Hints:
CATH superfamily of the largest domain: 2-enoyl-CoA Hydratase, Chain A, domain 1
CATH topology of the largest domain: 2-enoyl-CoA Hydratase, Chain A, domain 1
Shape: globular
Largest sheet: 6 strands, mixed
Structural class: alpha/beta
Number of helices: 12
Distance between the termini: 36 Å
Strand order of the largest sheet: 1-2-3-5-7-10
CATH architecture of the largest domain: Alpha-Beta Complex
Order of helices and strands: EEHEEHHEEHEEHHHEHEHHHH
Strand content: 15-25%
Low-confidence stretches: 73-87
Amino acid sequence: MSETDASPPVLEINGARATIRLNRPKHLNRLQAEDLDVLLNLFAEIESKPEIRVLVLTGTGRAFSAGYDLNSVAERAVSAAEQRSAGSAFEAVVNRLEDIGIPTICRLNGGVYGGSTDLALACDFRIGVDTCEMFMPAARLGLHYYKSGIARYVTRLGLDNAKRLFLTAEKIGAVEMLRIGYLTAVVPMEALDEEVDRLAGILAGNAPLAMAGMKRTIHEIARSKLDEAAADHRHRESMRGDEIKEGIKAFAEKRPPKF
């Protein structure tokens, strides 16, 4: 795709895998206000298709994303309920991505900046090229970042790393992104698709209900909002569900399970 082509995010479905591609390469895939509703609709479409087992989020061109366009129709109004729980339209999109039921992989084909650092962090895994970099410029812009984004940084990267990235607005490269836990893996550009395909294949082959339940429990624990009764119920249900029957049978027959 050429640098002059641009559109809202696009969805590609290939078997059990869905890929959402940010698609404004001329502007480093900077997200526009109109992209936000598109992303929410794509998330809903993906969750409505049980055959989709894994979501990959990536960008077109030389960067993953330069973040949200602060010069566009800034922080469009959402419903009163959404404002109380999310704080902004962009925040609502990131939180929705984090809570999507299937496993998610961010394929970081290049740099990730501003709000898109949080968009990537909302994915379950982040695989980046060895030339990628990131920075969070909120302190330089005079912006107090929204609370759920700060919480994601703290719970995933730790208190000291969150302070460093938010308060200094320091740019860091792929090696440091891996060291602090922002990246799951770093690979050369020529190996990026192979590594994403490998991880996506593993996730697509595992038990979807068990993964969705464990993902929810993990997030609740990270937020210090664990619904213990619900987590216990999901555990008990899994012990008598079809997935565990197939998993045990496949193990005994020394074959991959078919969920």
